[in-house]
Design a protein that fits this description.
The structure is a homodimer.
Chain A lengths: L3 H9 L2 H10 L4 E2 H5 L8 H13 L3 E6 L2 E6 L5 H33 L18
Antiparallel strand pairs in A: 1-3, 2-3
The structure holds a DNA duplex.
Amino acid sequence: MADQLSQTFAALADPTRREMLSILSHGQATVSEIAEPFLKRMSMPAVTKHLKVLERAGLVTKTQDAQRRLCNLNPSGFQESVQFMEQYRQMMEESLDRFGAYLETLTKQSTKTKRKSKTRSSNKHGRKK
Amino acid sequence: MADQLSQTFAALADPTRREMLSILSHGQATVSEIAEPFLKRMSMPAVTKHLKVLERAGLVTKTQDAQRRLCNLNPSGFQESVQFMEQYRQMMEESLDRFGAYLETLTKQSTKTKRKSKTRSSNKHGRKK
DNA sequence: TATTTAATTAACCAAACAGTTAATTAACCA
DNA sequence: TGGTTAATTAACTGTTTGGTTAATTAAATA
């Protein structure tokens, strides 16, 4: 499983690691700070290992501060995986829009009234109209 | 690793499976058709297993047509993972924009001329300005 | 009905993964 | 310098993953 994208997705395929990313999305933190919410569930070396997976995947960087290690999200580490998902986002949104439109025709037919659309088709995702 | 999102990312963490998704993004295909490009590298049962992983992850659906199985992408199966990446896309793009802007100030300083920006900040990704 | 085609299931194996406890490294501090 | 704090490394274990070959299912067809 050598390639970067595979390592990234493998890193994301674990709820503990996703929670660690979520913590880091609020700003930098030391290993101990990150570990704190997990230490009821798992040992310190387990935390170290999870962070190493995130580091190897390029999603997190560490810098040393005395005995402490400061961890940070590495935004550019998300680039490849974000780009990958973009392709499928388009497909997904078009499909869901079609389904939304279909539901709308059903509603119109059954009620014989026009309603203001409250569905996804109101461009929540910022794609071009 | 029970949860849906973990299963999805785990399914995406393999280049063979990503290639299968790419094939299916051009339209439906039978198991044999999907298998064809891989049969130099791996056996038919291996292909079956990969497809099963994609199915369990909710990314692919199968329907029977005589002895054949027709495979399709399942757009809504991508919803959770796409939404997850959205969060980090924002962070990533902001960071890359800042870096682009920084590079621009460097260029301006060294050349003392204004240039039209050719960087990412030209809203390629359709997010609101 | 016997054969071929399409795909899956079964049984097995090696490597990777996620966790453990114990030991070690390395910096700070009293 | 001896102890404490922060984190990692080592060694080990059970489970999951990705592959194999051989056997099986099930539908189409000659």
